[in-house]
Amino acid sequence: MTKCAVRRAGKQTGMSITTAIFVLLMLSGTAAYVLSTTTVQHATSSADLFGARALLAARAGLEWGAYQILQNAAGGYCAGASDSASVESMAGMLSGFTAKVDCVHTEHAEASSVSNVHMYTLTATACNQAPCPNAAPGANYIERQVVMVVGR
Fold this sequence. Notes:
The chain is of the alpha+beta class. It has one domain. It has one helix and four strands. It has one helix at 2-71, and strands at 82-87, 98-108, 117-127, 143-151. Strand 2 and strand 3 (117-127) form a beta hairpin. It is rod-shaped, with a radius of gyration of 32 Å. The termini are far apart.
């Protein structure tokens, strides 16, 4: 009777090793999937955050350009047909960003008006790797561009 008991134990041990290897492979596959999903999720979240900051930097560039036009109308920024300036001293959460503000000035005559209407088209391009726009961007380059028209 002892001989039969020894034979059955040997067969069961071989089956247990196969099951254990299968379970380990399934767990390692699941761990690899979770790790890759988490890595992609963190990269996407970081890119989204930097994209929002770049948009805010571009809007700050527009506000700077509009302020320059409305406060220094006599001969300051964009007094000619076109002008370009770089806003680099951003503070706080925007400290790593640069905004390039391009301006195109056009003058239009209105029928009932004695003076002409001045239109300024401002285009602000903000990025995290100067100069903006960057012709040869590196890794993790983020750029946003916004346009605004100011009339005076």
